[in-house]
Amino acid sequence: MPRPSRDAACLDALMRSGGAAEVAVLAAASSRSAVRACLAAGHLVSIGGGWVVSAGLGSRLREPPRSPAWHLLPEEWSAQWPELLVARSAVAASRRAALAGRCAALHRGWAVLADPASTELATPHGRKARNLPAVLGPTTLVRRRLTAEELAARVTSPVRTVLDCAATLPFREALAIADSALRAGAVSHGELEEAAARRHASRAAVLCVVAAASGLAANPFESALRALLVGVEGASFTPQLSVPTSMGPARVDLGDGELRIAVEADSYLFHGGEQAFARDIRRYNALVAQDWAVLRVSFRDLMTRPEVVRDQVQSVVWARLSRR
Predict the structure, then answer these.
(1) C-alpha span between 224 and 230 (Å, rounded)
(2) Which domains does the chain have, with CATH numbers?
(3) InterPro entries from the entry (predicted)?
(4) What is the separation of C-alpha 68 from the centre of its chain, rounded to a whole number of angstroms?
């Protein structure tokens, strides 16, 4: 049994590494017998590939906390979330892979519409994928021609992340991530268009997402709503449209200035306070006074009754077109 001081040195080295490290690094700071003792005691969890994480990070992989999504109030954000990011990055390193898809987007701090159900990894072509320990929880592997920079960073590039999501996710989720990347300044629209033009796999889906993407959308709720309204005939909705009113400029989440239709993505997070509620009422009334039709959509209805929301907006569009 290694001396307690060696065990402590092993755990100290792990903490200095952020809770995840290669076994060789810990052994150099203590001893291999100390690493084995810490594993046996449950202080360390092996994730394979010569890597270990702390017991706390291992539990985050098994039971991931909810991400600090745009629609959660700050007090609902989990303090465990940063630990999950570290743990997922360690998983990528242990597989000599890179975080991909929604995991890559979250790692870069982009807001997403829905959390990934697994750790999403991209592995280089030609590299044999090793069996993954059960401690990692669900894991999804895809093959990609990864660059040296992506492997070193343990995450796919911003452009690749956006295009991969566009190719594999439902349109509303993919658009939310593309909008988030543009809003964060991580990519430009020109970069996405250039890369999409060279893409062969799922080309139609990728081009559709890139064409619709906009950094003007405030959050994934608005992005998903705009994705739904792409299918509305006879209208063209602009995100965060500024409308002149008698009370000054009124900004609407989605607006068609020609038809005078505004569609609002209403959530408690941004409209729950008394002052915000009163301000919204004044804004809506100013719009209606200028012959604008204002439709308010809740997040629950958007996610569970999208057909109803789209049909209601379509009905208003047809009514406006019939007045011409």
Answers:
(1) 10
(2) 1-41 (no CATH), 54-212 (no CATH), 220-322 (3.40.960.10)
(3) Restrct_endonuc-II-like
(4) 10
- What pLDDT score does 84 carry? 87
CB-CB contact of 314 with 233 (8 Å): yes
Q: Beta-carbon neighbour count of residue 278 at 10 Å?
A: 10
pTM of the full structure: 0.89
Paired with 261 in beta bridges are 256, 293
Give helix 203-212 / helix 158-168 axis angle, nearest 10°.
110
Question: Are 100 and 156 contacting, i.e. CB atoms less than 8 angstroms apart?
Answer: yes
Q: Residue 201 above 90 pLDDT?
A: no
Q: How is 151-197 classified by DSSP, letter by letter?
A: HHHTB--HHHHHHHHHHHS-HHHHHHHHHHHHHHTSS-HHHHHHHHH
pLDDT tens-digit map of 84-117 = 889 999 999 998 999 999 999 999 989 999 989 8
Q: How far apart are CA 64 and CA 84, in angstroms?
A: 7
